[in-house]
Design brief:
heterodimer, A: mainly alpha, Fumarate Reductase Cytochrome B subunit, 3-stranded antiparallel sheet, elongated, B: Alpha-Beta Plaits, two-stranded antiparallel sheet, 9 strands, 16% helix, globular
Chain lengths: 348, 189
Amino acid sequence: MFTTLNWRALRWATCWTMLLLLAVVVGSRSLQNFDGALVAYLFGTLFATFGIVYRYAVWLQRPATQLYWRRGWQLLFSRRFARYARAVATRAAVDVGGQAFIFRRSRARGIAHVLLAWGCLSAFAITLPLTFGWIHFTLQAGSTTLYEAHVFGFRVLTFPHGGLLAFNLFHALNWSSLMVIAGAAYFIRRRVTDAGQIATQAFEMDWLPLVLLVLISVTGLGLTWDYEFMQGRAHAFMGITHAITVILLLVWLPFGKFFHVFQRPAQLGVALYQLEGAAGPQAVCPHTGEPFTSAMHVADVKQVATEIGLDFTLASGGSHLDLSPQGKRAALARAHLAARTRSGRLFG
Amino acid sequence: MQTTTFKTDEEFFVDPQRCIGCHACEMACAECETNGQLPMISVDYVSRADSPQTSVQVCMHCEDPVCARVCPADAIQKDEFGIVHSATTARCIACANCVIACPFGVPKKFEPTKLMMKCNMCYDRTSAGRKPMCATVCPSGALFYGTRAQLAAQRPASVAVNVFRFGRETVRTKVNVMMPAGATELIVD
């Protein structure tokens, strides 16, 4: 085990996990606002933090990833900061927030993914601060009708517990659940009807995440159902099944498909990279005579290739990577024709 | 899930010299269910001004895929049958590193959908024991999918080669190219 352990990633993961633990202690005012009933969720979250940071740190050590990571930050904090910061903000809103690129794959997929993604993100945004004891609710002193919301121990909001705001605040996780179920239903349907998906899908990467999300949402709705319509008789069952599914998800976060949530922002670095590339010199294919990408991109891919032990240097000088995709295909066809010609038989 | 009847005794053989540029493979490729009805095969004139020579290029499914190694998002995976799949939709960040690095010029990037796609040897068909679409429609035998014995009987003067040399780099592939008998590699330099 210790031969494959990535010590750098281990240090980062330990550091972030400790920081989170410290933030929980400080944010919950030395745990006085921490809800002991949620301690299992806290341990699940700490595990997920460790795993996610560990995997992220390992991922960043890949030469290609490292290059984009470095270039992305270099470009953002370059002399074009204002322009690039605007571009990042726009792309973040359009691609990460609005997920426009998924809508272009299909409108229905886009809607379903937005529901799924924002259902999950909103649920985390609500659950995590509650779990950490950063947010808690109390009855206003001397009142039986007014609730107070506290953030990091400071009162930020007072509202009547029977009002519309209270209804939505206390049911916010239900709205998230409904969004997730609607989104997941579309993707489940796709996974049983789309021949391409059926051929390439794998249980742990494609089905398990959907099943987990539906189970979490259904058991979460079950908690509300229980206290609204069953007088809380099934609370223990609902509470435990919900906790188990949520903790399974937290433990699974660093390993499975959900890790793409943390990888996706890399797309913003790529957007900057492409902006910078388009403004600079272009790589012209020696075969087609046409530009096909930025000269920076070709140079960087060559550097990555060298770092991972690949050498496409040609005997005639230059590199095979100087060719565009069409140029490479032509080079291959020419080499094949030359070999056939040398053999004296074009077919056989 | 992952129930497959992939025929491991059948292989893909390409003979670019037989390509007549009819584009039938391209039309058939678009029928592949894993491509979203987009053709992933490339049919080009090699040098239109000088010669009628055309080339056909499927993914060669490298043993150690360059596209996967240069992918910053870890989005390209090779399965247990040696099939190198299109970028995982959830992970691909459309950087096009794979497009620039692939020595065979195979991956295609679709900017609007932020996705790289490539030939995955018609996995919807081959995983069900069928032949890839392109090989079933190729009228000239430039694309052949079957056993080595079947091919040897049809083309005794050729040999299947899966070693390519691009300058100093040697690339081994799952897909074979038909070369003159006696050849052991195709040198592209």
